[in-house]
Write a structure and sequence with these properties.
The protein is of the alpha+beta class and about 250 residues long. The protein is built from six helices and four strands; from the N terminus they run αβββαβαααα. It has a domain of about 150 residues: START domain (Alpha-D-Glucose-1,6-Bisphosphate, Chain A, domain 4). The chain has a four-stranded antiparallel sheet with strand order 1-2-3-4. The radius of gyration is 20 Å and the shape is globular. One of its GO terms (molecular function) is phosphatidylinositol binding.
């Protein structure tokens, strides 16, 4: 229901999304891929690298990679003054009016990026690939639009919710993550799919992701199974639209 009509026309009612994430703060990777689970969406992938630095966004080529030398666009997201879709606006999450009781931070005024302390910038390198003839450009541009707004809304909320997470211990963070996961699964009605699989004549898998990972990675190099798509350059990003549900509001209504 969140997809545009042209996307719903080619999307079945049931499909799966696999997300893999690797966290070595301040460097993280998130990769979404339909290519192994969705035959109707071959070679569809979203790959996002993230680095955090204590500055206002003035680092050049922070990823030290030739991946960004091709067709790309640099977009600065201002959590206070960039427009968001009206239906997702919440006055309590508006950094222009929010003031933190715990830290005294906010509201954010014009020019806040130059004079606000402390400050952190989240750098994102977003790659989208959808190799389906006739839909490639439209889908890739749409996904970039959605990701841009998700990032904008999410970081606005991170600032506006600072009194909820500031000072949390790691144990409290893990407990909060677990509670949020359970609440989300209950909200969307997560159920185990009824699928019958025969063990006769099944090909041997050529590779698989690790069954588990240590809480602290042994290397600052990302694992091979999270390698970015390399067959073609990324498409440009663009603003507009959003598919991020108001999770808390809906959960409260339930």
């Amino acid at each position: 229901s969140k997809l545009p009509s042209w996307a719903r026309a080619v999307t079945p009612r049931i499909f799966y999304i696999t997300e893999k994430a690797w966290n070595y703060y301040p460097y993280t990777i998130t990769a979404d891929s339909h290519s192994l689970q969705c035959s109707f969406l071959p070679k569809f992938s979203i790959y996002i690298e993230t680095k955090y630095e204590d500055n206002c966004g003035d680092s050049e080529n922070i990823f030290h990679s030739d991946k960004i030398l091709g067709d790309h666009e640099v977009s600065f997201l201002d959590i206070a003054f960039d427009e968001i879709p009206e239906r997702y606006y919440r006055s309590l999450e508006d950094p222009r009016f929010f003031s933190s009781a715990k830290t005294g931070r906010g509201p954010l005024r014009e020019g806040w990026r130059q004079h606000t302390k402390p400050i952190m910038c989240s750098y994102k390198l977003v790659s989208v690939k959808f190799e389906v003839w006739g839909l490639q450009t439209r889908v890739e541009q749409f996904v970039h639009k959605v990701i841009r707004d998700i990032l904008l809304i999410g970081h606005r909320q991170a600032f506006a919710w600072v009194d909820e997470w500031c000072g949390m211990t790691m144990e409290e963070v893990r407990r909060y993550e677990q509670e949020t996961q359970e609440a989300t699964n209950e909200l969307i009605g997560l159920v185990a799919p009824a699928i019958s699989v025969s063990e006769v004549g099944q090909p041997t898998a050529t590779h698989s992701a690790p069954a588990s990972a240590p809480s602290t990675p042994l290397s600052d190099e990302a694992p091979e199974f999270l390698a970015p798509p390399k067959t073609r350059p990324r498409k440009k990003s663009a603003p507009e639209t959003l598919t991020l549900p108001a999770l808390r509001e809906r959960a409260g209504a339930e």
